[in-house]
Amino acid sequence: MIPKEWLKRIRRVEIKSKLISEQLMAGASASIFKGRGIDFQDVREYVPGDDVRRIDWNVSGRMRKTFVKQFIEERELMVMLLVDMSHSGHFGTAGRTKRELAAELAGAIAFSAVRDCDRVGLILFTDHVEHYIAPRKTRQHVFRLIRDLLYHEVQGQGTSIKTALKFLNHVVHRPAIVFLISDFLDEGYERLLKAANQRHDVIALKLLDPRELSLPDVGLALVRDAETGEVMEIDTGDPGLRAAYEQQAQERETALLDYFRRSKIASLAVRTDRPYYRPLRVFFERHSRSKVA
Question: Cβ of 265: how many Cβ atoms within 10 Å?
Answer without folding.
Answer: 18
